[in-house]
Structure to design on (218 residues):
């Protein structure tokens, strides 16, 4: 099975959209089957995008097509979602929007060895001639960050500003240990919740990050 056009995926998805709307009510085995089916049909079109779902107990299911921060595939994700039909009970978006994991962040990553509510970042700056910056996150952890901690911190950053801003504005996300710094240095660190405002200020005057993760003139 090979799809050459986004409409071929969406034709299949629309055919089963009523069945898929009941994913939250299915037993684990049936739900996993249909999630694999969605992923398989997406791969038939491209392996450069992945699909994620947020399934609330009530309301529309959020269907997100992500490039996991790889900016070169953002236009593909936008084009793919632009071809989606209007489907009752579904909300479709390109790239992970800010706040996507709000209710799930602690549940999914809270056991990885870092308190995500205490994350802070160093003041932002770009190197001379650079169009992107490296985000330095300071975490209250013991020793060097593990791969699991780095994954949890990255998820928190994506949740704060969205995938589009991460891909378009950041070179890397680096995690450091709070205990490595003197008290006067710690005072300079900024709560992660303030990151959207500081990125907008760094990018240009009178900009803000909207609910879909786009930098917009305010």
């Amino acid at each position: 099975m090979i799809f050459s056009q986004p409409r071929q995926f969406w034709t299949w998805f629309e055919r089963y959209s009523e069945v898929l709307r009941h994913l939250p009510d299915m037993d684990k085995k049936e739900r996993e089957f249909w999630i694999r089916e969605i992923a398989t049909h997406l791969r038939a079109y491209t392996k450069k995008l992945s699909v994620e779902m947020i399934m609330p107990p009530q309301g529309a299911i959020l269907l997100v097509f992500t490039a996991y921060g790889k900016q070169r595939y953002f236009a593909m994700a936008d084009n793919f979602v632009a071809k989606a039909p209007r489907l009752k009970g579904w909300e479709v978006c390109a790239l992970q929007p800010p706040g996507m994991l709000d209710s799930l962040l602690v549940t999914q990553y809270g056991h990885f060895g870092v308190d995500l509510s205490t994350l802070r970042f160093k003041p932002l700056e770009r190197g001379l001639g650079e169009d992107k910056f490296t985000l330095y996150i300071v975490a209250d952890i013991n020793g060097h960050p593990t791969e699991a901690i780095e994954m949890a911190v990255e998820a928190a950053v994506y949740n704060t500003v969205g995938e589009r801003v991460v891909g378009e504005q950041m070179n890397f996300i680096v995690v450091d240990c709070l205990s490595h710094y003197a008290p006067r240095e710690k005072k300079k660190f900024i709560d992660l919740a303030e990151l959207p405002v500081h990125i907008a200020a760094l990018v240009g005057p009178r900009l803000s990050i909207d609910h879909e993760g786009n930098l917009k003139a305010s």
